[in-house]
Batch of 2 targets.
Target 1
Amino acid sequence: MKKTLLIGTLILSFFLFQSPLYALNQIPELLCELGVKLYRSGRYAEALHEFKKALIANPNYIPAKKYIKMMEQANLAEPEIVPSTFKPISPEPKGAMNELLDLIDLQREMIRDKELIQVETVKKKEKPEIPAKKKIKKLKTPVAITKPAKAEVKQPQPIVQPNKPIVVRPKPVVKQDVQPAKQGIQPTEIVVKPSGTAIEPTKLAEQPAKTAAVQSLEEVIQPPETVSLPTTTAGSLSLREAKESEAILLSEPSVPLVTEKKKVREFKPAEQNVITLDNSLSSIPSPIEIEMGKSFIIKGNNISRYLITQPKLAKVQKNGPNELIVTGEEVGYTQLFVWDDSGRWSMDFLGILPKPEGPTYEETIRKEQERSRNFRLRYNLDWVTYEAGKGVSDLKRSSYYWTHSLSLNGPTPYGDLDSAFTIRRLNINTDLTYLTFGLTNGVFGNFKGFSLRGMDYNPNFTNLAFQGTTLRGVMFSSPAFNNKFNYTTFWGREGGGRYGNLSPTLSKTENSFIAGTNLQYTPTDKQNYKFTVVHGWGRDREPLLNKYDYDLMGDWKLNKLWGMGYEIANDSERFAHLFNIRYRKPKLSFTTELRNIDKAFNSITSRGWRQGELGALLNLNYQPTEKLRITSSLDAYQDRLYPALDNPQRWNQDFNYNMSYQVDNLTGVNLSYLLNNDQGRLSEIRFQSPGIGINRDFNLFKKRLSTYFNYYHQENTNFTAHSVDYVNDKYLAGLRLGIFGGLYYYANKEYNMVIEESTSTHANPNAFETGLDWSDQIGKTPFFGNLRFTYRDEEETDTRISFLSGQDYIEGYSRLSYKPNADTEVYGSARFRNLWADNPLVTKGVNMDFNAGIRYSWDTGVHWDAVGNIEGYVFKDFNSDGLRQRDEPPVEGIKIWLGKNKFQVTDLFGYYKFKGVRARKAFVSLDATTLPRGYIVTVPLVQEVPIINHRTQKADFGVISETEISGCIFEDIDGNGEYTKEDKGVAGIVVTLEDGSKSITDVRGKYSFRNATPGEHAINVDINTIPVYYLPQKALKKQITLFEGVNYVFDLPLKRIEE
């Protein structure tokens, strides 16, 4: 009896004290579960820390070991780098006992849940547990999970990691034939809601059953993306069963299953600033982003307590019995636990930087693109009156005019339309002085890129035969033969659009016409040829002009530095020649031009350019340093049209030299020399002037004071009229000082020391000018103003050579404009000048002018878009050329977006099509998240497609798997056979494949064969390229089977031979 009682007591004691032991054993599992959660979120360093803590609690805990090994093989164990703009989170104060106690209570509660799972499992006496992989294969039907009445748990939604290629390192495998699986598996993703109602499960994408060869590649594993729970035959699981099954899956990491994305409601705290603890919580993406300084409300049912793991990141305040206010404080990741009558709720938060207010850059660009499609109407009005008199009371209007300009521009299905006209009135006469309309970037069926212009225009080219003029007529230009050929043809009456201050009645219509054709041929980017023929006729043409002119031009780029060109023109009787050589480098460039223009050569419109000259021109630009720059030009020529009478063969020389040096940010100096030696012309003159100058800025009372001083010595000799010979020393000095805002004070002084050589007369004409000017926005209003007051005093200007006007004056100027936006401006200005004479030959008096106007641009909101179709294919681009070949298979199930609102999914043939696209141009993009694992795009992810009216445009997308063979050849210093920090790579070793392709190791010993084709390969390391003092530690040849999307790694350790 006593023995029986003793045994019963021992058994009872064993069961009574089992829970604490069980709780102690659950600590590694809890730590590992937390590590898995961090791992899914991409926080690898923190996850590795939790896995290591789990090993401290239980050194033999297998799941933690597996995850640590997996992260090391995938190189995911690197510490996270915190951007410098983020403030590090300070550790929690040791005295926060209440938070620590809450955390302990949370752990105890989770332990109790695990304990209940084990107890229920024992009670049910179910069959022995099946490994996770086998359980997944038994899934057939979706399941619903019910929740006990008291414990409500919100499972965090899995975060899908981006597609990464599988990295495979070789291990001994038994070769087997790879047979395709007949039937895939369909696991079910489970999301647990705290309310007890079932959530519709998300189906996972079908994966082929693994063959023996595929299973042998699972040594290195990708991060798990989702957790799929096995179903039971009953079709439903309790919460504890779900937890138990999840624990089984976590203990055996495997290659993740790719899930089909389920569309969820996007959560935006700025729009929905209330989170309710009910069924809707499960549809909120995790983690919830909260901006710094922003707040939102959490509503529950009688909230009893809460716990936040990182109080520095978010501030939580209670607002009554049923609400919490959460405010973002810092950038980082934290968790919030809330207890109410329904149980415990958990939420993940990510603190982010404040988002900029207003539209995003992408939205702004999109709106600008939409606006650019609309027709825009622009209107300009300019009114000017000029009055003069001896005094203010005697002012009379001497000139008056106004102009109206109206233009309409916008894209059409047939090109860009632009049109404009100008009406001008001078005094009492009004005329339509300018009218034009045109179509550029024209499209008409397959005919593209042409331009058409009518009424007033300027032909878009000039040369020796046609020097350019304004015509009223029509012009057409277009490219041809893949843009290697371009032609322009035109016809028009001379004197088309008229500008200037002449009265419209003074410019009569001329009977003078010009027509012509310009042909341009560009066979390569280094050659360009142009040919022009123009014809002129009409009774108002000058008699000296011929009816036809011709021009031929060629240009060649010899290499990156040198180029040359030649042009020859003929006016039906005489020739003109131009030849040039160019040299260009970043610091030195020069051009040389040789010309020979017949003295009677004429263009189609007027006398020829530089008529009668034979000469050469050299331009030089040299910048040896950022501070020093030298420019110079020399022009030497004969004037055969108006030569010197005593020697018609004499040459002229025009030379200019300028050197500027920036001493520092505030100081600069310059040297210059000018020579005009024109003794070979009819009027024989020689002028030369060396000069020196300096400019310097000062900081005066925190204001910038800019000063300058220049000196020039001038000598002028006129060999045909010595009475105007002189020598002058000119001094120029000035300053400009900022007073406040946009107000500046300025002062300038000019002083001349002139000697008239014919009479030996000395004179010192000089002038002083000073004033104030202000230009700025008026406060924060849309008004802008400009004011200027100037006083000028000239002295000693009554000499024959003075260089000054002899006028003293006071001038005032003011302008006010109203610019509420970039498209609208209303302005008005007035100028008053009071003149008095320092020179008796100058008339004194008063003059004033007034100017007013409007500039307005109106977006009409009307647009005329083309309507067309877009189609294309998604295919496996084996050769990565972006072009679809017949042997490149299609890719099905890829989502193609048109803009941001429409998409199509490629069919069995990789084909997609958008019909009735209404736009000038559209942007088609491939959704990279729908690509198979390890695939990348070989063409731009976003393609711009021009829409042609009633036409179908094509946009194909090539994709290719990141299938690669790579590795490292290294000196195995530590002798462990693996590449570590102590080892060093060996460069220059050749690695080849069976098809002869080669890869040479770099300084780190790395080699790679990118975009390798799947299938059998033979890797061979060329022993002749291995240095003689190294001995390979493994075979130099390797036969492998490469699967699509896999990076096969073959490393070769070397051992240095000891002497």
Target 2
Amino acid sequence: MAWVREAPAWKFHVFLSFRGEDTRNNFTDHLYTAFRARGLAVFKDDEELEKGEEIASSLLEAIEESLCSVVVLSPRYASSRWCLDELLKILQSRAEFGRFVFPIFYDVDPADVRYQRECFADAFKKHEERYASDKVQTWRQALRDVAGFSGWPSKDKRETELIEEIVAEVWNRLQPKLPSYDDDLVGIDSRGTESIQAVVLSLPEPYEAQWHPDAFSKMSNLSLLMILNKLHLPLGLNCLPSGLKVLAWEEYPLESLPIESQLDNRKSNNLWRGTKFMGNLKSINLRNSKNLHITPDFSRIPNLEELILEGCINLVEVHGSLGLLQKLSYVTFKCCKNLKILPRKFGMDSLKCLILSGCPAVRELPEFGENMKNLSMLALEGTSIAELPVSVGNLNGLNDLLLEGCKKIVCLPNTISNLKSLSRLNISGCSNFSKLPDNLNENEALEYLNASETSIREVPSSIVLLKNLRLLSFRGCKGLSSNSRSSFFPFQNIFRFNSPPTPNRLILPSFSGLSSLDKLDLSYCNLPDGSIPDDLGCLSSLITLDLSGNNFVHLPTGCISKLLKLEKLLLKCCPNLESFPNLPPNVHHVNASDCGSMKPLSDPRQIRGHLASFAFDKLQDANQLKTLLVIPGNEIPSSFFYQKYLDQVQDIEYLKKNYIWADSTVSISLDLAQLRHQYSKSEWWGILVCLVVEDVESSPSEEYRIGWISKVPSFKNILHQLLHKLETGFVSGIPSHKYPHLLILYIPSTYWFYVQDKFQLIFYSSSLKSKLVIKKCGWRTLRKEDAENWRRKLSECATAFAKQCVPRPSGGTLPPHLSPWIWISDLKVPQHCKTFLLAILCDRLPAHATCKFCSLEGTVIHVLRDCTRATSIWVQMVPPEVRDEFFSTSLRDWMHRFLQKPWLPDRDYDADCLRFTVTAWLLWKDTTSSIFKGTDTDGLYSMIQSLVKEYTTLLHAKGEEGSSGGSSLSQSSRLKQFIKLNVDCCCTANPGYGGLFRDVEGKWLGGFYGTRGFTTNMEAKLYAICQGLITAWDLGYRTVLLETDSSEAINLIEKANIEECAYGSLVADIRCLKQRDWSLDLIHSLRKDNACAGILAKLGAEQHQLYCFLDHPPKQLQPALVADSLQVQLPCP
């Protein structure tokens, strides 16, 4: 019997030995991924040894610490001395420790390996010329030995089948070597389970775990369990530790939670008899668990504080015991589309937030208990409730009542007046809602009232008593339509019945009491002359006023000019408006496009008069291109440097490289060094650009846009490159009628703060049907003296312009529908996807001679939909009810139908738009760039699903920032807020850097990461500090505590001689930042306290991006943030 000495403790299940040149990026990579998906820890050496190097000791240790070795014998395997040395060590480990060895004969014959024929003979012939004969003989014998083991030849087998067979056999052979219960959790030793406090699993792909049902039974001290990827548990799950505090399990795979003492029938849908007491469990997060049908009996989880069941689309019933939990503070069932049954009564006295948004099957709400005074948010968007219970009046602490899209609700109960703390009421999209309560004034704390797109015909006069109201919107409230009566009385016109006139516009009260109102939206309400109250000018706090889409000819005299705080005025698409109002002195943006009855500006002095009303002194910190004025006009003011329209081939080619298709371009080049020399910083405020755009075709076009893109020359200082990467965007407010329009844009001097010499702006036009051109262009500098001179002439210029009007042209009516480029710009999809959609409608995507996947003609519609490859993707996401229509319409009809309305009435419109757009974009990219190799579409479909999920998160974050009720901080709040900034670098040959901002409670505010390329770790650490301070300043934070675990970096910043220091330039930049007007402390922290910043730095090294700012924490960071908040240490990765 052979003697086997004691094996070292194992760290890996599998060691992969392979020849990188043959299989690194194909077979071996796929095999590695398959092992990882099965839950096996795999060692794969990704470093190529240079000539003359010896095999690393760490590699030899990894072989000894692996339970088995998989040897991929490929044609060039024997040509590598390092592969042969690996093989010797593998066989030695087999002999000494009893390790398994599995050979794979990849594109080679096992007999050729054993007898060293063909390519193996050639390899050994070279070895014999270079190495000692005894060494070569040991290599030869090793190959003979491994060729005699049972293995797998790759010939005549599909790769996927071969890999599945290999993984299954390795798994089965390793099972006896692995401990029994919780050891199925890879890397957790059964003897140490009582010491485990946190378990976090995050894998890049779905994973089937062969865990024993009692895998967690011995982890008595487990307080945090986070599963962040899709996990399949074929053996089920019997129990969870009673001491668990936080359970976060995305896409939970089972139908119910194992919070029970025994399971009589594991296949049952209801496993809640004999519940186990779990007094420590405070948080349950089972987001997107599609198999969950029913919740547990919550009576034995008395201390539960947070319940997150968002996206559990098959959840039907919530156990009635939920309503009895006295410590529960946060509950969300968002997007549980089949949820029907709720507890009859809610009595959760500590509940602060209840979310039922996106639950269309919910038709009735529970009664609310008398002591539910802590509930501050009730979100019911998209439900099918017809009324609120009278007991809603018990919610004395309610701040937010959100009913957007509840199409069946008609009115609010009278008890709504009891809600003295109600500050936000959103009933937008409640199409049958016809009347606001007459006693609405009793909700004296109300600040936000959105009644857009409702059937409200008359606004109650009591609304003027809401002294705290800040936002009021009746957008699209037209009352009953003029032809609605005809639909009920089809013979009315035939028999000429007389009926009382029905108002088809909104009836407004006086506005005199709304002293706090800062935003008023009365757009598209069919308001005629005389319908706007004369006291509109009394709104002394008004900042934004939207009167677009109405039918008035004139506005009340002086009502606009009295709004001294007004910054944004929208008068778009008012076809009868004849005269432009006098403007107040502090506006930032005015849009009067598509006002067909307004005379185009012809006197340049009029433009100068309007510019006098703009608050240029308050626009200095905007740091972006801003549209000031859009108005009918055809002349460049004489004070602008006139530049003729020029169709520049070079600029058009530059745009194409950035996926932008243009009809025409004009570029403006600025010599900033000369401008800075000519004007001091205090005098030079910025640049004004004036464009005249016009459709030059014979027929009006409704489908065009103006965009811009900036070009900055390369810099020696990488900091400048970082802060001035390519920028692009659309100019807002482009008209949709064939009238010449004047656009005046402003770029403050701070926009080019780090640009040293030259800067170029390219403006481009793009149309879908006709040809829109930038007909004229001009620019000029803006000095403080210029603005002051214009202000002195404000009254004269404004008065002269107000008198300019002409009769409305015949036939000048609004188009029956918004132009496609407008609705595309409104889609909640990424910007590059909007550009792609416009390119399709502009016929800017080139057709291919043949499709590379099926050899048919490669038309756009074929590539995007009709190719068998594309069809196999679409059928996985398109509902069966609309598939016939989906696959039969023309290209343009296809896009209009499936982008302008939901695929089915009960589906999420925004989600369908995003899914459609991302899929079409990736299919096109796959055809042109081969982003996913091979004919199997599963990988491409997974990529689509992943991108949709990522973009949904990003767009949701942006939406939250943009909403008035969101959690984003105002500039004034940020100036006062204390924040902690942690920064770090990733110590590799290509070091990344990263950092994150948190408030005084440790809550995430934002983060960033990037890479410096090949540089030193110290430079990366200093750069992380510099970039963190720049980002903090730009975000408006003025009280900052910066922590780094590098005491050496702090010492350089505080004491280094800049002229002698190798990092003098960076240190100088940091010192300059420290001298700004803010409270800034730079201190040293322990390495373990800086773990979150370290994760971001590692992400920066992996992503190879110069700089990326994060509004929300990435998935890789979330476990560390949760662990920080619970003050537990994560398991080692």
